[in-house]
Amino acid sequence: MLTLVPTPIGNLEDISFRSLEALKSAELFLCEDTRVTKKLLTLLSEKYHVTFPCNTFQSFHHHNQEKLLSTFDITTFKEKNIVYVSDAGMPCVSDPGATLVEFCIQNEITYEVLPGANAILTAYALSGFDYPQFSFFGFLPHKGKERQNAFNQLMMSPFVAIVYESPHRLLIFLEELSVYDENRVIFLAKEITKKFQTTYKGSTKTLFEQLKKTSIKGEWVVVIEPQAQASGEMITQADVQELQLPPKQKAKLLAKLTGRSVKEIYQEILDTIQA
Q1: What is the pLDDT of residues 110-135, one digit of tens each?
Q2: β-sheet bridge partners, residue 139
Q3: Does the predicted TM-score (pTM) go above 0.70?
Q4: What's the distance, Cα to Cα, between the start and end of the chain in Å?
Q5: Alpha-carbon span 123 to 135, nearest angstrom
Q6: Which residues have CB under 8 Å from 201's CB, separation 6+?
Q7: CATH code given to domain 2-113
Q8: What residues does each domain of the chain span?
Q9: Reduced to 3 states, what is the DSSP secondary structure of residue 104?
Q10: 120-233 domain in CATH 3.40.50.2300?
Q11: What span, in angstroms and rounded, lies between the C-alpha atoms of 11 and 29?
């Protein structure tokens, strides 16, 4: 049997009794990072005075999952208590747990996913945005058309959009948001459930200026107001063309909408002006 066990996203007290029991009964740990799992077990053992007998750990992550799945012994999964542990939070959310679930389904292996701490839902609840639907985009691609397309989708989404962001890229992302729509309301949460949990809510421009002067260490969740609610209607290329903006800023906005190169669009605008 496979049990997918959620782990605390910061506060050790968020571990559940069911999760502790699953960890104690494990005969094999599959881990997103074995070092993180071993440290977690040590901390839990010290805090709750429990023992975790299993000392067999196998790394299972995005880079090796396909190779390992082809070598797994189905009989072992059916006869042993195997536990999958992600680095933090719910399995199958921005980690390779989903491939294990599909493996179990395809091979008729009994499995269970325990409920637990989750940064997405916690940030959604903290945000105060009162909309019944949201879209989760995980970490956006870092560059190129993939990033432009993903950025366009989240900014034009009719639902609340939720994104994970790292501290060294947060200001870049906030600047992109403020260029696209400086009045869009967003919510930011840093280090959820941890000692230095911090939250902010306001317009993209205001928070970009504020956080340029603030420590941004830690992991972030960004919750973005829906496009339809922010402006009343979907922004179009024609809308942007009519705006009285400097050519470079207009080119950036059009690039966000279309996924095309800023340089290419900027040159087209200059050609139009000179014609």
Answers
A1: 999 999 999 999 999 999 999 989 99
A2: 164
A3: yes
A4: 70
A5: 13
A6: 127, 128, 185, 186, 187, 188
A7: 3.40.1010.10
A8: 2-113, 120-233, 236-275
A9: helix
A10: no
A11: 22
